[in-house]
Specification:
Layout (H helix, E strand, L loop, with lengths): L12 H13 L5 E7 L9 H7 L3 E7 L6 H12 L4 E4 L8 H11 L1 H9 L7 E6 L6 H9 L17 E6 L2 E5 L11 H10 L9 H15 L3 H6 L8 H11 L11 H13 L13
Parallel strand pairs: 1-2, 1-4, 2-3, 4-6
Antiparallel strand pairs: 5-6
Helix pairs in contact: 7-8, 8-10, 8-11, 10-11
């Protein structure tokens, strides 16, 4: 299976429009806050953002860090720090790291703040654009940050359809933007990793095949993940055999007693997305 990668491509028309709007709005902002999924940091970073941001100050938020390995979160923080990029690991559903985010935003924009002071401009809030691919938690972050529901949230990609400004703090204003993918995944592994976390619309994916790739990849680093969750024995089994074993264990059967692999695939991927397989980082810092 390793050499037979799924080739996932998905670039709806509204994303091209979102990219144009983002490019226009860049001239109004001081800082680009990029939210990525801590489990697949590399794959969830949109290369288009680097092109659009140019020389703007940058801050990266490792969201869903409660679902990834603590050791890998620390390594990713070191990785970005070595590039002089500010980074904060957080769970956007809570407000526990919000003071760190404000402090990191100010640190990223300290040269601009000093320039403003020299010009007599005091206490002007940093204007930050919040960007990221679909389903990494941009709207959840903004809602938690502001303490009220100001941005739509959902577990399907493409919920935010247009840009909107949110004043969340006297020191910081946020511009929410729609989730933005890029036109073509050069590496098919990127598409698979984004499909694992739900950033690709499930409706265009063969989830049974995707799940088999997922099982193979997870077993390479976490050989006990499925044994513990589903109380089965995975050793010596191929991914499809593991899915069949889970189907029997969880009574996911169709008429006649055959395994319902579609239902099992949905169960496994939902369990991963919800953290029920444990803290699992698919991509590690190098």
């Amino acid at each position: 299976m390793t050499d037979n990668k799924l080739n996932i491509q998905w670039y709806p028309g509204h994303m091209a429009k979102a990219r144009r709007l983002m490019q226009e709005d860049m001239k109004m902002i001081d800082l680009v806050i990029e939210i990525v999924d801590a489990r697949v940091v590399r794959s969830s970073r949109n290369p288009e953002i680097d092109k659009l941001a140019g020389q703007k100050s940058r801050l990266i938020l490792l969201n869903k860090s409660d679902l990834s390995e603590d050791s890998e979160n620390a390594r990713w923080i070191q990785y970005f720090a070595a590039q002089n990029i500010g980074v904060v690991a957080l769970d956007a559903r809570t407000r526990t790291q919000m003071k760190k985010v404000v402090a990191a935003a100010q640190e990223a924009c300290k040269e601009k703040i000093e320039r403003d002071k020299r010009r007599g401009i005091l206490n002007r809030p940093i204007r930050a654009m919040v960007v990221g691919i679909p389903n990494v938690g941009k709207s959840t972050f903004i809602n938690s940050f502001s303490g009220k529901t100001v941005a739509k949230t959902g577990n399907k990609p493409g919920v935010t359809k247009g840009n909107q400004w949110i004043r969340v703090d006297s020191k910081l204003e946020l511009l929410d933007t729609p989730g933005l993918l890029w036109p073509k995944f050069e590496d098919p592994v990127v598409g698979m990793h984004l499909a694992y976390i739900g950033s690709i619309n499930d409706d265009i994916i063969n989830k049974e095949e995707l799940c088999m790739h997922f099982i193979e990849e997870i077993l390479a680093r976490f050989p006990d993940a499925f044994d513990k969750r589903y109380e089965i024995q995975c050793e010596g089994k191929e991914p499809h055999e593991i899915m069949e074993a889970i189907a029997v264990k969880k009574a996911c059967l169709v008429k006649g007693g055959d395994p319902d692999l579609k239902r099992v695939a949905n169960m496994i991927l939902d369990d991963y997305r919800g953290g029920r397989l444990g803290k699992i980082s698919i991509e590690v810092a190098e």
